[in-house]
Specification:
Distance between the termini: 32 Å
Number of strands: 17
CATH architecture of the largest domain: 3-Layer(aba) Sandwich
CATH topology of the largest domain: Aminopeptidase
Order of helices and strands: HHEEEEEEEHEHEEEHEHEEHEHEEHH
Number of domains: 2
Bound molecules: zinc ion
CATH superfamily of the largest domain: Zn peptidases
Strand content: 25-35%
Shape: globular
Radius of gyration: 21 Å
Largest sheet: 11 strands, mixed
Number of helices: 10
Structural class: alpha+beta
Amino acid sequence: MDLQRLKRICDLGGVSGFEDDVVLYLQEELKKIGPSSIDSMLNLYVHRTEANAGDPVVMLDAHTDEVGFMVRLIRPNGLIEFTPVGGWVTSNIPAHQVLVRTVDGTYITGIVGSKPPHYMSESERTQAPVIENLYIDIGVSSRREADELGVRTGNPIVPRAELEFKDDEIIFGKAFDDRLGCVAIVEILEALRGETLSVNPVGVFSSQEEVGLRGAQVAAHTLKPDVAICFEGTPADDTFESADRRQTALGMGPMLRYIDSKMITNPRFQRFALEVAKKYDIPVQTAVRTGGATNAGAIHLSGGGVPSIVIGVPVRYAHTHYSVASLADLQGAIALGRALLKELDSEVIASF
Ligand SMILES: [Zn+2]
């Protein structure tokens, strides 16, 4: 696995709807794989040069967007009011660094400020923060200065955090949901270069998942896949569940879910994937989720129905500035994706 590329992909900013930097980087990295295109939603489609027309199309999906914010207004004193994009818990937002994208596409540093404890009343100290009282300080004192820096209403804002490695085993950083999925697809397409398959995998890097699976909805209509495999950075539960109850623990392999709030996983495809994992000796974990959803929720309902599975890399503290994940789990997701593409053919797919 190319670790420097992994870091680059995670560090790039790409709030929902503003995934440009991620999409262009991935397109450049994958130009040897085959022809690619980008639609108006900023979905990126990467086809293999080895593709045989007539082979069943396997959509390899990962979303490029991350949770972030948008400039709502700039106060006369230069402080920025903002609105969250994607699912945030307000208490995770204050006292962190962010990067505000300016009109020319560059990013400037900001701090999410709030009232210092010295000025808080006793009741204010114990109250949960509310988004309306938070603001971003970019180090200016007037609206005019903010304007001169190119900050405008509607500009996207991303969490600022750079990926760090711990012993080439554990990674800390932002946007693992779902840049780890993007990395998995990049690695799979590269590993399969020149190989003859019985299916036609297409890498789809979809936009706007965090605001309701929007890019994937369009991508599935465009591509009309026969089956789909969604690669996700999926929330880990091992920091709060007891050992006998956890289903998505770091270091235990990719997680395959039977159900979540938007999909009952095609049981035949799921069984096939678990059998392939066993055959190739790839450790996996399975989960029954009551909440959460992935792009598979949209893809499996497209066209005449698309059998879909989710391969999730466990990510601790998703939707915050700092997540923790295991490179072994990511390797497992890549290995399982490759194995599935080798084992899938039209007969197997017809049985789903
Ligand atoms: Zn995600």
